[in-house]
Amino acid sequence: MDERTDGERGLRLATRGLYTLILRLMLPLALLRLYWRSIKAPAYRRRIGERLALGGRAPRAGIWIHAVSVGEVQAAGLLIRQLLERFRDEGILVTTTTPTGAARLGELFGDGVAHRYMPYDLPGIVGRFLDQVRPRLLIVMETEIWPNLLAACERRGIPVVLANARLSARSARGYARVPEFTRETLRRFTLIAAQSQADADRLIELGALGERVRVTGSIKFDLRQPASQRDCAEAIRRLWGQRPVWVAASTHEGEEALLLQAHRRLLERLPQALLVLVPRHPERFDRVAALVGRQGFGLVRRSHQDACNEETSVFLGDTMGELPAFLAAGDVAFIGGSLVAVGGHNLLEAAAWGVPILVGPHTFNFAAITEMMLEAGGAARVADAEALAERLGVWLTDAALRAEVGAQGQAVVERNRGALERLLAVIDEALVNKAVSCQPPAASSLHADP
């Protein structure tokens, strides 16, 4: 038994050592990628030192929240507001991986919440960052699992909560390729608040301790848009005019061509229809605009503030922070990343406004929420561009049907509110009962990071 335990411990150490070595070798490439992305999005080359925990010292903060990008920041918004009320004196730090996530945090909180870029998951960098921040608690949003960071927090007695956790079957298969390493890493979370029972089951199957996993639901159901958002949506709708409008939200490479194909088919039936096209990544705005132009559609770009007239058939949403208002102003929403194998995006912003939703075949990133919406009749799935055009033609010519579908989706949102309160209870549990996470470290973690 002891020999097997020693062997397993040695394998875990060797695996994490290999992971760290690979990460070290990839670091120059990661930095080069930032510079490459900065050609089209200059924000990627700014504050690079923060990713190495160098340069400007990170501020002290009792609560550290990591939210990768825009979607995670948006989801964490209500949580951050609650934590600001509870822990204002301790300070809250939010890290993101992308500049768009940083920008969205600034839009939501201004200077009220400190921001830094997430440090790379190398022992020296992570240690330096923790020395600067010295958090009492780390909350990681959704799917971010960083082995060296978790090991460092465990050694320092810092509880870590994986909040709003989701894990698709596809991602679970990837983690299962390194079972011992994954098991050790997941067991370093103090508590895990899973979005659904399916997410919880996958995490436990991979090695998370069942007694540390709670099913709290998705806090995205608790999102409440301010009244000012409705006013903004009404102003945008006046800009578009009285015509059928469908919004394609968070689209990806290769998907826009399919959406334009569907829109061309739709125009044969509804010549006045308007497609509001909102790419997921800002660095792609110009490329998507060029694609629309090459295909001969009348194009207006939101950033140019040009008039949207009867000759406009595509409105490009190339600004940040306006997607919720676009969704509220539209008649039908298509949620991107689902006609191509990206895995889809969050349906709930559109559903909360009572807007009927269409998705493609690839929705594994939001499988549970998507199935709930489909079963309730608040959304429909289409297989391809032709089916999308067909369904759009039906919905955009039947206001009563749109209202019925939209109401079904809105009811799903209302029935599932309350996840935020349950997540806050998990956070309180992690803080109050530190014994869950501050047990004597496993033998493998008594050693220095490789």
UniProtKB/TrEMBL annotation:
Source species of the chain: Thiorhodococcus fuscus
Please give the name of this protein: 3-deoxy-D-manno-octulosonic acid transferase
Q: Which reaction does it catalyse?
A: lipid IVA (E. coli) + CMP-3-deoxy-beta-D-manno-octulosonate = alpha-Kdo-(2->6)-lipid IVA (E. coli) + CMP + H(+)
> GO MF annotations for this entry?
Kdo transferase activity
Family designation: Belongs to the glycosyltransferase group 1 family.
* InterPro entries the UniProt entry points to: Glyco_trans_1, Glycos_transf_N, Glycos_transf_N_sf, Kdotransferase
Q: Which UniProt keywords apply?
A: Cell inner membrane, Cell membrane, Glycosyltransferase, Lipopolysaccharide biosynthesis, Membrane, Transferase, Transmembrane, Transmembrane helix
Has the keyword Cell inner membrane been applied to this entry? Answer: yes
Give, as one word, the top-level EC class: transferase
Matching SUPFAM superfamilies, A to Z? Answer: UDP-Glycosyltransferase/glycogen phosphorylase (SSF53756)
Q: Give the Enzyme Commission number.
A: 2.4.99.12
* Pathway annotation: Bacterial outer membrane biogenesis; LPS core biosynthesis
Location relative to the cell: Cell envelope; Cell membrane
According to the record, the segments passing through the membrane are: 18-36
> What does the record give as the function of this protein?
Involved in lipopolysaccharide (LPS) biosynthesis. Catalyzes the transfer of 3-deoxy-D-manno-octulosonate (Kdo) residue(s) from CMP-Kdo to lipid IV(A), the tetraacyldisaccharide-1,4'-bisphosphate precursor of lipid A.
Q: Where is the Glycosyl transferase family domain?
A: 252-410
Q: Which NCBIfam families does its entry note?
A: PRK05749.1-4
Q: Tell me the superkingdom of the source.
A: Bacteria
Q: Where is the 3-deoxy-D-manno-octulosonic-acid transferase N-terminal domain?
A: 47-222
